[in-house]
Design brief:
The protein has about 240 residues and is α/β, with parallel strands linked by helices. The chain is built from eight helices and ten strands. The protein is globular. The protein is about 35% helix and about 15% strand. Helix 5 runs parallel beside helix 6 and helix 7 packs across helix 8. A five-stranded parallel beta sheet has the order 1-2-3-6-7. Strands 8-9-10 form a three-stranded parallel beta sheet.
Amino acid sequence: MFYPKGLVQKSELEYASRKLTSIEINSTFYGSQKPASFTKWYAATPDDFTFSVKGPMFATHRRVLAEAGDSIERFFASGVLLLQEKLGPINWQLGPEKKFDAGDLADFLALLPRKIAGRAIRHAIEVRHPSFDTPEFPALARRHGVAIVVAGDSRFPQITQDTAPFVYVRIMGTTAKLKNGYSSRDLDAWAARASKWAGDGREVFLYVISGCKKRNPAAALALIERVALGAGPLPR
């Protein structure tokens, strides 16, 4: 069990943020959050903590991505910028049925703001259709400075091209059979990859999702410990 017995729900973020270095906010994918929520999350976490945020499905799960401008604007006006310097990359996750369309995707990436009110905004894009496994896709992402999400240990396309100054990884292979969700060998391998990316001068955002959710915190802690022992920058 990750949280201490008896810990009230409103204190869970404060506790988790002292154990982890970053959390991906998933609720924003399904709907707008109140500005007060972002303010509360900011206040509950340490100064060096980072939140990555899922972009809204209203922008990403549509037939024509180029028509997502209004949804993107509403998202950034919803209060997400209240995370201030703790705001990490925005993960724009496309639907599994969305096929690669170079023109439409280029128009969508052009809609993503690079700076708002003087604050730089970083973006990552997560794709789930095999048609994205083409050289045109990373070339397009690189042109816009957008990271391609590494969907580790999943059935989704495995695209690990360097397209941005940071790396965004979501590993999805935890199992209930193992105390830490992953075998020691697999944890060592992911920690080594994270350290290599960081050694190349790229900030690493690595999240453990899906799989066996109750094991994900243990896997994340095990990865942080391994990277720390290797004297490399901690993945977020």
